[in-house]
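ok so i was messing around last nite and threw this chain in just to see what happens. nothing serious, just curious
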Amino acid sequence: MEHISKHLIPEIKLSCYEDKFSKTEIVFDQHMLIWFISGETKIVQAEATHTFRTGDIFLIPRNKPATVINYPKDGLPHKTVVMLLTEKILRNFYSKVEVKTNITPVPKIHIFKNHPLLESCLASLVPYFDVKEPFPENLALLKITEAISILRTIDTEIDSVLANFDDPQKANLISFMEKNYMFNMPLEKFSYLTGRSLTTFKRDFMNAYNITPQRWLTQKRLELAHYQLAERKSKPIEVCYEVGFENLSHFSFAFKKQFGYAPTALTGQIARH
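result:
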């Protein structure tokens, strides 16, 4: 897989995938504003699955687990302009403005389609990626400030997301795990997102489930995969990545070990135990 990234500054890049697809399991540490030039992305989250294509603009909030699957489309590579809205930049921005809302932040993807103000802001960056000279950092920061200002103009709830700098609060472990088990994150990330140390997370997990987190995660992912194959008639290659496995080979091995038959047995007719 050939992946090319060109950076103006660390917070602004042009990302291009030339191969069939790429898949990552991500919890972003910073908010990420993305504009699609070409290609297609499927983003699977606990509450919903979104598909984005050429011209779409969306904001992925920080500390929100997601499976991101990127595809080329119509003979064109998967190509995006990505802008990171870091805590440092946002703290500096909000130190100078009045926050518009007291709404409790909801960690969801904010979708702006091809809003002309945002599209103009992000498209104006594209020519600079081919300039050999270093891009002036002060100009780059002005473009980020412009993007934040546009977001605040077109989305009255965005301040509740961008101006919230709190770490995750201690969450109900069972509720969180039942919603997010399909994301292939390290246990350290699960513990952080539930507001716990790793030691406390493992202890609370054993108290709740009487099984180790890793064994429970594998079982839950395989159960979800079985449902999607049997009831939704999904393809094994699609299910593999959407339920949290790294590759089809590992998924097929674990599936057969759990159920006694391969995932392909469900694509036509369910095999008997």
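not much to say yet. The longest strand covers residues 31-38.
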